[in-house]
Amino acid sequence: MYHQPVLLNESIEALNIKGDGIYVDVTYGGGGHSAKILEKITTGSLIAFDQDQDALANKPDDDRLILINQNFRYMKNFLKLYKAVPVDGILADLGISSHQIDKAERGFSVRFEGELDLRMNQRKDLTAAKIVNTYSVSKLREIFFRYGDLKNAGRISTLIETARSQSEIKTTGQLKEILKSLAPRMQENKFYAKVFQALRIELNDEMGALEEMLEQTADLLKPGGRLVVISYHSLEDRLVKNLMKTGNVEGTVHKDFFGNVETPFKVITRKPIVPTDEEIKQNNRARSAKLRIAEKINGKG
User: Fold this and answer.
1) Domain co-membership, 214 together with 271
2) Residue 153 near residue 144 (C-beta atoms within 8 A)
3) For the CA atoms of 232, 94, 205, 102, what is the dihedral angle to 10 degrees?
4) Which terminus of the chain has fewer Cβ atoms in its 10 Å neighbourhood, N or C?
């Protein structure tokens, strides 16, 4: 299987799908969520996005589906191009796919020896190897601290600088070897996963793209339309929660003359929906998932 969808039934139910509706899946991947949406629409349509070229191989022969091989930060432009605005629902599953993790040469997994790549979009020139070999120590420190929540980000950056001055760092195995003295005993993989996560987020500008996509949703949804987002780490979840509560990713509260909070959304999930123990048992990658749902308010946006 290319990818086992997380919180599949919960997220599809959250969309409140109508047979003639227009829906957007901004993270197509293996097409698992999209397939469920297609089961529920009749005369409606689905527009999906994925910047990874490998995802195109998963497109079914279905006239109701348009799959766009682009970053979801360009969602508004393409929906306008296809005259699909406004839409009835937007779904985002922000996790990386099992396919990306399990393909050693992509460099996403700490379990495999492979090129230090980590590109979501393989057409990009910048790779994780270029980051660790060319970024300044201070910039590396900032990346590991902010995106990996690594308290020893300074030590990590210094070890990388020392190693790269002797020879270029090209593979996942080399990077792990360089940092092995810092990996906590019995928690080595967790430590390396945070290092790789930080590099991946920086390389793919994941937070910038997510901010841009989220800020477009209120303008694109119909009144009553649903925004459904599955996030996997606190940085993503904070942006999603802020957007749904206040209408902006910064979480800045704007109030009207009467003191009411002005926001284009009604929050459906006061607390995020999380996977059951059974789902986590079947798919360990679901363990950190959080599902949040909001509905576009009439006349707002």
Assistant:
1) yes
2) yes
3) 90
4) N
Bridge pairing between strands 65-68 and 265-267: unpaired
Query: Tokens for 239?
Result: 């942006």
pLDDT at 298: 73
Enclosing domain of residue 180: 122-203
Is residue 103 very low, low, confident or very high in pLDDT (cuts 50, 70, 90)? Answer: low
**Going by C-beta distance under 8 Å and a sequence separation of 6 or more, which residues neighbour residue 194?**
144, 148, 149, 150
Domain co-membership, 197 together with 163: yes
Residue 301 lies in a domain: no
Has residue 56 been placed in a domain?
A: yes
- Strands (E) located in the chain: 22-25, 45-49, 65-68, 87-93, 221-231, 265-267, 290-296
* Site of tokens 């789902």: 279
pLDDT in tens, 114-130: 889 988 888 889 999 99
Model confidence pLDDT, tens digit, residues 188-240: 989 999 999 999 999 999 999 999 999 999 999 999 999 999 999 999 999 99
Residues 184 and 233 in one domain: no
Indicate whether 97 pLDDT > 60. Answer: no
Closest CA to 100 of 38, 129, 145, 58: 58
Same domain, 191 and 223: no
Q: Tell me the three state secondary structure of residue 177.
A: helix
Residue 101: pLDDT over 50: no
CA distances from 23 to 46, 76, 107, 109, 247 (A): 5, 13, 32, 32, 20
